[in-house]
What we know:
By secondary structure, the protein is mainly alpha-helical. The chain is built from 15 helices and no strands.
Amino acid sequence: MDFLGNWFGMTNWKFFGEPPAYVDKTKAPGMSDIPTPTVVTWAINAPFILIKSPNFVWACMSMGLYWLNPYDLTPNSVAATSPISYEFMTERLWIWIPTVFGYFGFWHGTLLFLNMASRPFIKDRAYNINKVVHNTFWTLSGTVIWAAYENVFCYLWATGRLPYAQGAWYFLAALAGIPVWRSIHFYFAHRFLHFGPLYQQVHSLHHRNTDVEPFSGLCMHPVEHLYYYACVAPSLFFYCSPFAFFWCGLHLLLSPAASHSGYEDHFQSDLFHYMHHRYFECNYAGGDAGFMDVLFGTFRSSMVAEGEPKARADAKSTLLTIPTAEFITYLSLCYGCFALWLNYVGTAVSAEAALILSLITGFGPVALSVAVTRAFGGGRGVKPTTMNAIGNAIHIVAGAAVCAIPVSYATWLTLRPMA
Ligand SMILES: [Zn+2]
Ligand SMILES: [Zn+2]
């Protein structure tokens, strides 16, 4: 039964205080080499990813929470009234705010206050309350945006605009398949956000944390949340069940917490992503699908080359400085795209107008990132220096396909004239 000690996210039966097997404990945290991930090891592990990783804990949480709070998709439900309704979103936020803040707070408290892990990547890191307030603010913003996603999908299901499949086999397929899909989607969505203009306007907010703590995980720009949650695309294109959608959402909301801990010895130790925050231009994948970085030449296995990292102030991660004109301009214009769509929902628009409005919602934030970066001056975006033109083209097309197209399609479904 000893093998069970390395399942469910445990290492040697421990959730805290034990680093992953590849770590040489005689070396400082981050100084051991992550074994080079290959597509073969990924494919061999993929069928067991639900039980041999933290996914097991999140899957149990999602089943329990969904059982307690299923979606009401009857034709007279609140969801059927509007894709964005105050009543629906308030109802869902009563579930998600305690869940998200309880879970992130658990990691923040156990690691930073109760010292339940003992191998921080940075020895001399200082607790920065401004940073934590900044991170929780954008985490709250992301929780509200997730409730909006739920509202849109429940509206589509309750009004018959989007079909969905039910049944035991679909349930099991979703349970095992979502974590695998999540890691692939994350790689392409994340890599997309590292293109110059999108990085400058959007993803740089997440990277204000070079020295991470749990709440930095879901600390993202609203446009990043929009594209990150587009991972629910299988519900649009393969009619996955409402549970599959809920499970994917819970995974999107909770999995970034412990992976942004800044510690090496607990159930979701993530040196891989920690180095991404430290060096920016490496390790774009989530921990599960690191072979994608090996494939495209962006894999980095340890921090040995730089030596033990020193603490950084992360001065930009604060709510105390006034946002720049560039930040306000871009965010306002993106909310403008969203408001434009919302203005036409429920009205009789033509098929052509529905198409144009949905393209503005899905692709508008990308086009605006280019326009605003040009207007304010570029050059502050991280450049994908390690890839050639073909590599970049692949990532732009794939990124648009998994981020902007699902948003456009979901928007189009809400506007499309019904026969
Ligand atoms: Zn990044
Ligand atoms: Zn991150």
